[in-house]
Amino acid sequence: MSLSRHPSRRHFLQGVAAAGTATILSSSANRVLGNESANDRPVFATIGLRNQGWTITQKSFRFADFAALADVDSNVLGTNVERTHQKQSKKPDAYKDYRKVLDRKDIDAVMIATPDHWHTKIAVEAMYAGKDVYCEKPLTLTIAEGKLIEQVVKETGRVFQVGTMQRTESDQRFLQAIALIKHGRIGKVQKVTCGINSMEASPVIPVAPVPQELDWDFWLGPAPKVDYRALPELRVGYGGGVPLYSNGHYSFRNWHEYSGGKLTDWGAHHVDIACWALGASDTGPSRVSPLEYTLPVEYKDGNPVVHDQYNVATHFNISVAMPNEVEMIITSHGDNGILFEGSEGRFFVNRGKIVGKPVEDLKDNPLPEGAIEEVYGGKVSENHTANFIEAMRTREQPISDVWSHNRMLEICHLSNIAMRLDRELKWDPAKREIIGDAQANSFLAREYRKGYEINS
Prior knowledge:
32% helix; Rossmann fold; nine-stranded mixed β-sheet; 19 strands; single chain; alpha/beta
């Protein structure tokens, strides 16, 4: 369903454009985006509500009305339905099964914040149902899934935003970093280091009773059927929380069956900015080499043989050969952030600072006027949802598009495969396949569990 079929919503979105995305959070823009009439606002739904799901929902109340929420945990669903009702006049409908959301003809777009192994199935089915899509990072569990999403975006013409918020919500530090590179302030880039943190191994996590409020089979979805595991006495989060150690929430990112550890968590942010700065958002590496790393359990043929502990890499140094003879290092050591090194200088950027002599030199030699806007491709939005809605209006892809996201995420996926197989991988960025390694190429895709295949 295109927004053009709803004149009142089209009027609202034209107001967004008139306000200008660079000032979309100003008081004047707030009046444009006010709550005078629910019919003037696009209608959203969120699928997956724990943690980041609620974060992106509450950031979007200013711009959209939420008609429905979906989650396989009844406690999480109920809590967030009430939270949403407090934020807007109408209580959203609640569903365990996301497919009931996709059946709704009144919903313009869905926001997906499920665990990673669900992203592709829901996103593809949402696009075929006529919805625009906002999906949390990392977008996919495999490289093949990224190709599929690209194909369906092109086929359906839907707008698709990936939740890599460093592109819009970082006080422009990262955009400034890219502008420094583009304007030659460190000369020829020679090396970029992405610090993305280490993680700790887990204790043995025993089989445990499934919480009454959780549909565990539905949570697993396309992933293999396994027992629920948890140490229930150690808990984190709101409302009594969830186990600190489990194979579900809170720690699903620490299992290859559902995510990719730090490589696809923080890596999806910092590798993205690095590729953007290097002008490598539509290409890829030629080689991925695991220099040193630690896997917390034993592996055979690239697969863990222990199933009661976290299985993603805990520590790592990975060398990536990027275009133009640039070396990228992805490391769990040192500061979280990105260090750019060139023939004429170096600087460091993260979410709290941008430091180094090229940054200090801006006081006497500022970047040209419009340099940040040139990087961004127009006026800079200070809110990811605002950028998404503007894209829905223009029917153009937003700043966090699926193509650039998938290209950088391929580096993260390849890094995990290289560690799992304990060898260097050579990559063909044109064919998007590993060169001369059938076993490694088998890790580019995965089988979906019967009953949870993608429906088109």
